[in-house]
Amino acid sequence: MSEKPYALVVLVSGSGSNLQAIMDAIAGGTLDAQIACVVSNKRKAYALERAENASIPTHVAPLKPYLREGHTREQYDVDLAQVINGYAPDLIVLAGWMHIVSAAFLDVIQAPVINLHPALPGTFPGTHAIERAYEAFQRGEISQSGCMVHHVIPEIDAGEVITQAIVPFTAGESLDDYETRIHAAEHRIIVEAVRQIQLAKA
Q: Residues 117, 150, 183, 187: which is the catalytic one?
């Protein structure tokens, strides 16, 4: 009997370009894993189309209807963690997941959780990190930023770093151009981080 594939559940909120990087690495044979499910909190996230086109199961979990029904945010996190546990993942990957992961989620989830964040360790936690870094560069405060993949803990973007990439600023480049270079680095390190954790477990 063949060994169970290394199973990932990927959480997304947007276009899913980082999801696509993982899918491409698996298809190309550079990452020996299988995506068991793609979860989105946005019904219209293009990431869901990417998954469906690749015959990957999807699960949509919008928060607002849940709150309207009288449930708490904590209960949403617990229920979502239980849904994810049902796929028996070896690793949960937050790849553009735009919800803060609570302690309630982490208490219930049965696999390690990692997050991709578009800033270097200890800098620009939370949302709009690329824009905030670019503005700091424009003010002459920094010369580089980058991205990292880290283990998820209740404190935002503060878990142990698995891998990172420095992306220096270039004089005169637009925010869009810099963002494009950050995303290219993200696509590389998200695959590298999954591979590192998988090899550490082997």
A: 117
